[in-house]
Design brief:
mainly alpha
């Protein structure tokens, strides 16, 4: 009897420990982080490079043409990575707390950045502004309300992040809504192609991450291959927007299978890619 109790206690401790590893409370949570950190840095580097090319106007040459054709692949990879990591967090945490933590991660840095950008715009009189637009841009919804007159065009990404987190919160609270959210996003492809494509990357990786936790690696791997091929097929036969989730989900799944600990320096730069994204546009212009 004591042995049974001891064995049951050990199994319980092991299960609790594995849950905390998923949440990121143990050093083992760094497993698979090296490849994901490298993927995040590579994706933001691709985005920054293409922005520099568009600013300088040097959009010629074989390599540049190749990169330009994949202009949004860095963004869609970041969205897929965000969805994947969102699926690895503690499901016991309240949804509103989960959403609040992510919005608090997004808005303070964004407010500092957009305040500086709007102030500079007023000094040089680059674009005419109304108070309505200023408020909308501070709320992060400028892409939806003023898509043709954004000050700091690169900040359209904030609208995408907020939409992804809101959909993630809804799906987290009611998991049965995930297919309906995917259907709603697909319905919006003709009106909001980029938002829809990147949102599909986020939702697809989110669902795949949940599948890994529930079904295990083999079944989730089969689902990843099936989902990637499905999106690729739809991009060839229906709408090229489906190429976004095909690339984003595939890249994240492949990198997540590589179990190597990340280096502190690499981790430092990886977790600060968001702040770099906010400031790289104004730096280029200066």
């Amino acid at each position: 009897m004591p042995n049974c109790l001891s064995r049951g206690s050990e199994q319980g401790d092991q299960g609790s420990r594995q849950a905390r590893i998923i949440e990121g409370r143990y050093p083992e949570s760094n497993a698979s982080r090296l490849s994901l950190d490298l993927l995040r840095i590579l994706a933001i580097s691709l985005v920054a490079t293409l922005h520099l090319i568009s600013i300088t106007g040097e959009e010629q040459g074989l390599i540049v043409d190749f990169l330009t054709n994949f202009r949004q692949m860095g963004v869609t990879t970041l969205c897929a990575l965000s969805g994947w990591l969102a699926a690895q967090t503690d499901e016991g945490r309240r949804t509103r707390n989960w959403l609040a933590r992510r919005l608090l991660r997004v808005f303070p840095s964004y407010w500092i950045s957009i305040a500086a950008i709007l102030a500079a715009n007023q000094v040089i009189r680059y674009k005419a502004l109304t108070w309505e637009q200023v408020i909308c841009q501070f709320l992060g919804i400028g892409l939806l309300t003023h898509p043709n007159s954004l000050v700091g065009v690169h900040t359209w990404f904030i609208t995408l992040i907020i939409l992804c987190y809101i959909m993630g919160a809804v799906a987290r609270r009611w998991k049965w809504t995930l297919p309906f959210l995917v259907g709603l996003v697909i319905w919006q492809i003709p009106a909001h192609t980029l938002l829809a494509g990147h949102s599909l990357s986020f939702l697809g990786a989110l669902g795949l991450g949940w599948g890994l936790r529930r079904w295990g690696g083999r079944a989730a791997g089969f689902a990843a291959v099936w989902l990637g091929l499905l999106c690729w097929g739809l991009s060839r036969t229906w709408d090229r927007t489906f190429l976004f989730p095909a690339v984003g989900i595939t890249c994240v799944w492949v990198c997540a299978q590589i179990s190597m600990n990340s280096m502190p320096t690499l981790r430092f730069f990886s977790v600060r890619t968001y702040e770099f994204y906010l400031v790289h546009g104004p730096i280029y212009l200066v």
